[in-house]
Amino acid sequence: MSYSATKKQSIRQLPAGVMAGPVGHLVAAAACLLGAIAVVIRLDGYIPDDGFITLRYAQNLVDGFGWIYNYAHPTTDAASAPLYTLALAGIGLIIGNVKLGAILLFLATTAISGYLAFALLRRCGLLAGAVAAAALLVINPWLLATEGMETSLFVCLLLAGTVLLDRGNSLLAAGLFAAATLVRADGLVFLSVAAAIVVWRERRFPTRFTVGTLFVAAVWAAISLWIDIPLLPGTLEAKIAQGRSGFWAHSNYVRGFFAMPVWLGFTAWAVVSGLLGLAGLAVLCAKWRNHSLWRPLFPFFVSTVGVSIAYAVVIRPPAYHWYFGPQLVAIALCAGVSVDWLATRVSRLMNASSGLTIGASVALAATIPVLWLGWRQTPHGTGSPSYVDAGQWIAANTRSDATVACMEIGILGWESHRDMVDYLGLLSANSVQDLRRGDVVSWLARDRPDYWVVHQPLNKVFEIPAASQQWVRATYTPVWTDGTVEVWKRDGSATPTATR
C-alpha cells in the first residue's frame, strides 16, 4: 500500500479512534446533556398528576411539617419513592423551589442515563449502537412523560450500577443498586441478581458487595429515624387492591404495556422503536456465545425480566406508565445493538474503504426517524389544566382547614394546599378495603369531604355510583366549573345514608 493510501486510511479511521477513547466519552456526555436540556424545554413543565404527590411530601419536609401529606388529617404513607422524595426536599431546600428541583433532577438523570447507555454498549464493543442507544434513551417520549416522577433517577442508578458491576467494582455497584431500591422497591430484584452474579464470578462470599449494601442501608436507617420516615409506604397495598378490583381499564400489567403508547399518544414512535428493539434482541440471541457482547448487558436484562414477572404475575397492579423504566432502557439498548449490526453489515456488504462513513450513515438513517417521532410525540405543557384551575379556585375561595376529594389528588393537592381525601386508596387504608370489596360508594358517607371535585361528565366507575345516592344530591351543590371538572360543596344539611 502506498504512503498516500495509508495516510488516507488513517485519516478515515481517526474519528472512530477518537470516539472510542476518552474524548469520545466526553463528546457523548456533552451531547446527552444538550439533548436533555432540549427535551426538558420541550416538555415545558409537564409533570403527571402522581408526581405532585411526591412534590407535596418534599415541600412539607422543606416547610418543616415532616414526612406527611395532609396537614391535619392523618393518612397512610403515600410516598412510594422515599429516597427520591428526600432528594427533592434537599434540592428544594437549596434552591428554594421543589418543583424546579424535580425538573433539574430529571434533566441531570436523563443526561446521565443517556451517557451510561453509551458507556455500557461501548463495553460491548459497539460504537454506532452506543450512540444510537444514548440518543434513543434521551429522546424517549415514554420516559419523558415521567418528568417529576422517580423513574429517571431509578433507571439512572440501575444503569450506573450495571456499568460498575461489569467493571468489577462490586462495592459501588452494590451501593447504587441499594440506593435504587430506596427509590423504587423494584431495585431489590436488580440488587439480588447483582449479588448472585458477584458470588458466581468471585466464587466466595461477596464481602465488598455486602459492605456496599449495608452501608447504604445503615445510612438510610439513620436518616429514617431522624426524619421519622415509615419503614414501608402504603402504596403497594393500594396498587394491589386497584389491580384486583377490575375497575381500571389498564388493570392487566402486560396488556397495559402494549396499550400505553395509544393512551399517551406516541404509538408511531413505540412501533418503530419496538421493532428496532426486537431486531436487536434477535441479534443478541444469535450471538449468545459472544461473551464480550453479553457480559455487560446480562445483569440488566435478567433483572428486567425478573421485575416484569414480579409485576405481571405476583403484584399485578394497574399499568401506570412510570412502572416500565427498566423495560424501556432494555428496548433502547437492544435498539442500539440492532443499529450497530445493521451499520456493520451494510459496510461489509458494500466493501467500503471508509467503513466509518457508510456505517455512520446507516446508523443515522435507522435512528433519526425514531428520534424525530419521539420528539414530535413528547408530551408538553400542563397535563391537566382543569385541575390547576380548580385547585387555585379552592385555594382562593375555601377555608384553610377544608377537605377536598377527587379521583386524582396530585395537582389539586399541590395547587389548593388543602387536606385531600383520596378514595382510590393511596392515602386511606379504609379506601383500600373498599376497593377490595368493589365498593366505590361508602367512602363518601365515611369521609364527608367539604368539597368534591368531579368530572363532566361524571366518571361512570368512580363518581356516578357515589353521586347517585339520595343524600348526596341533597348535600352537595356545584359551586364552580370550567366545563371539564366541577367543584361540589357540602352544605351539611342532609344525613348520609346507604340508599342511592
**Overall morphology:** globular
- If helices are DSSP runs of H or I spanning 4 or more residues, what is the number of helices? 23
> What is the CA-based Rg, rounded?
25 Å
Largest sheet: 5 strands, mixed
The class by helix and strand makeup works out as mainly alpha
Measured between the Cα atoms of the first and last residue, the distance is 92 Å
| Number of structural domains | 2
Strand proportion:
under 5%
Low-confidence stretches: 1-14, 493-500
| Whole-number mean pLDDT | 90
**Element order: H for helix, E for strand:** HHHHHHHHHHHHHHHHHHEHEHHEHHEE
* Helix percent band: 55-70%
* Strand line-up of the largest beta sheet: 2-1-3-5-4
The quaternary organization reads as single chain
Q: Tally the beta strands.
A: 5
